[in-house]
Structures are given as structure tokens and as C-alpha cells.
Amino acid sequence: MTKYYSELDVGQFVSEAVAGWPFSLETPIQELNCLQGGVWIKRDDELSFGSSGSKIRKYASLIPRIKREGIKGVIIEGGLNANNSLAAAQLFRQNQIPFRLMVPEGSRTRTAGNQLWLKLLVAEEEMIFMADDNFEDQLSAFKALMSESVLELPEGANHSWALGGALSLAFDLGRNREHIDRPISQVVVDAGTGLMAQGLILGCGSWRQPPLVRVIGIAGTKNDFEQGLLRRCHELERELAEQLSLDAKKIKVAPWEWESPATAKSFGSTNRRVFDEIARFARQEGILLDPLYSGKMVYTYQQKAQEWETSGETILIHSGGALTLSGFQDQLVGSIN
What we know:
4-stranded parallel sheet, 6-stranded mixed sheet, alpha/beta
């Protein structure tokens, strides 16, 4: 018979992974007014003002690991509009970790939305544009300055060192269970690079009654997500066996389903339906959604709710990112008038 790691085992890994992170990773859940009863929203947008909410969880284990490993500097891969670029710049600045933002080709500079906030945090000389002729020379110079002790961080902080922080969402959600009378039957989460949703599936899998995790695929494909989930599962099993000296067992994965957004399906795209949903949700719930992730996730749930009807409670995960709204003021005006 296969033996599985318990919620206590995985919780111990999470606690050790985020040890040294100075801020709380606890956020409330709030029952929604505008939907039928039994639907709640997990307020991970309250983890931080400047950084996208769920990004904080990734860095809660990533930054302590960087410090423990003696990493001198970080190269961040990401566009000028990306939530992760903004979060990384803020958090590495706070922790006095030197970094360079490696900007992919095709990024257009403008002083609005996330780019405005990013430029408050990052000097021009800290940005390396992949389209520049001396791109490789700039990277080499930074690595030499940091004595080659440099971590290269992929888009979305999709790195194994961020897994412990990603898993913290499931364990904080476990704490929220105390405030709900009925079992949680499904959790709805958006996914970009996929690490947060993968961590949620792995963390909830250790519950005695795992909920169904519905993943709204904002970017990538189901196959890519599934391959990433398998890779993270193996990484977690290895970490539990090695770092915590636990007997080798398997990680039980929560049931999950992949869904495409019900509108504006292309990554980075928006439309009037998304902004109308943001305006409606703000006026009925007092919660600001962002147009690229949480706005699409809530709209998709609205369209699919009857089809997804369950016997227990539903939790929607608010991943944060409301600062992104500042780059879409004209569209918002159109939806509130």
C-alpha cells in the first residue's frame, strides 16, 4: 500500500522554508454578497500593497533561501508590465539584494501602470534589454561584480526555491477552514506560470478531504501545467525526504481540472466584459480585481457556477495585482459610466 506524506509533514516543510520571512502570510476569507451562498474569496491581495498578493508567498521562501545560500545578486527575467517584475524589484530592494531586470525583446517602454511603479523602484542602469547589442556583456559584467554568485530567476519566480512559499497558500486556507461550517468542496485559482496553483494542488492534497482545485489557465497550456505539477511533486518529495529526514513516501495530489478563461482568452488581453466585471464586483463587494488575472478568474466562475455546482463551499483565490488597474484607466472609465 502506498504511504503518503501527511498535512503535518508538508506543513513542517513550509514552516522551515519560510523561516526568516518577517511578515505574516495569513490572510482572511470573505463570504461574497453577489453570488449564491457558500462562495468565499481568499484575500491574498491583502498580503501587500505594492506587490501582487500571491507573489509575496513565492518570495517568502525564495528570499530566505537566497540569503542562506550566500547568493550575492539576482537576474530577474520579466517584462516591464509583469506583476512579478514589480514584486521582485520591491522585495529585493527591501532586502538589499543587488539585481538586474532582464527585459525580453519587444517590451515597449511607457510611463503608466506597472511600468510607472517599476521605474520608481528600478534605475535605468539596473535594466538589461535583450534587444541591446551589448546584452551579453552587461550580463557578464553583473556576474563578475557579484563574483559569479548569481541566481537567474525565470519569469513569474517559477523556481524550486519558491515552492515552500507557494505551498503556504494551502496551509493558510486550512486555517480558514475553522470559520466555515461546511467542507470546502472546490477552490478556484488563476494560473500564469503555474507555480502558485501547483503548490495549492500539492498542499491541499495532504488534507484529509482534499477539495477539487479548478485552475483558470491565464497563460500556457494544460500539458505544460501538468508537466510542471509533476516536476514540483518530485521536488517536494525529494525535499521532504532529504531536508526533513522523513521516510520516503509519496505526495498525494488534490483532484484538479483545467479551465480556459470564459473571455479574453489570450494572455495579456482584456475586453469590455472583463472591465464591466471589475466594476460590478467593486460596487457589490468592495474588492478591486485586476484585469489580467483575478478579473478573468471571477468572470469565468460567474459564467460556470451552475455547471460547477457542488455540495460544499467554494473558495475563489484573489491573487492580487490591483495596482495593474492604473494602466487601464480609460477602459475603467468606460465601464463605470
